[in-house]
Amino acid sequence: MTYKRVLLKLSGEALMGEKPYGIDPAIVQSIAEDVSKVVENNIQLAIVVGGGNIFRGLKGSADGMDRATADYVGMLATVMNAISLQDGLERVGVATRVQTAIEMQEIAEPYIRRRAMRHLEKGRVVVFGGGCGNPFFTTDTTAALRAAEINAEVVMKATKVDGVYDRDPNKFKDAKKYSSLSYQQVLSDEIAVMDSTAIALCKDNNIPIMVFDIFKKGNISKAVAGESIGSLIS
């Protein structure tokens, strides 16, 4: 395996699968099985999960909600996803802890950096919910932040597409896929893979970002092994 400590970023939409809303148990089960194979190889894995399958703060704000309020609702959606993911992981035998940036002591631990790292050292998967605890920041930025905090070697962004394209491949058949590109290229060309704050954080801390298709079974293991299955930003 190429990497020993990995931060996996899962979008809320990834958990939705083909459903119009909510969580697809079959997708959660598939992700859990892939993660279990990674953990079996003594890879330390942390996960940041989004909440777009339930509520998206930006959309709420666009519909008239106060932006900060909308973002807090979005953070609560990520906690719902984190707990669902924990359940799926534990059903396949993976010891899992959920830590939230907003304290919810009855259902999850508060985020404590040293405790999170200790869980990883003990072979547990740590799922970070609640974003970074502050409005106006995306879960992509949270992924970059947590990766830097726990000394992860790579951020793996699991999406609905098989890499980074110069434009939306679902809309443009001639969209060009990048096998690799630099942080600066993503920032200067405004390529929509992660928000600019997340890219800048990874750039400043020299954390590569791997983007790949979550729906292809076994891709998480392949990505951790360093196989060329998507796009690499470094």
Outline of this structure?
About 40% of the residues lie in helices and about 20% in strands. It has helices at about 10-15, 25-40, 55-60, 65-90, 115-120, 140-150, 185-190, 195-205, 220-225; strands spanning about 5-10, 45-50, 95-100, 110, 125-130, 155-160, 165, 175-180, 180, 210-215, 230-234.
Kindly report the spatial arrangement of strands forming the biggest sheet: 4-3-5-2-1-6-10-11-9
Radius of gyration: 16 Å
> Gap between N and C termini, in Å?
19 Å
In N-to-C order, the SSE pattern is: EHHEHHEEHEHEEEEHHEHE
Oligomer class: single chain
Mean pLDDT: 91
Strand proportion: 15-25%
Explain this structure:
By secondary structure, the protein is α/β, with parallel strands linked by helices. It is built from 9 helices and 11 strands. It has a 9-stranded mixed β-sheet with strand order 4-3-5-2-1-6-10-11-9, sandwiched between helices. Helix 6 runs parallel beside helix 8. It is globular.
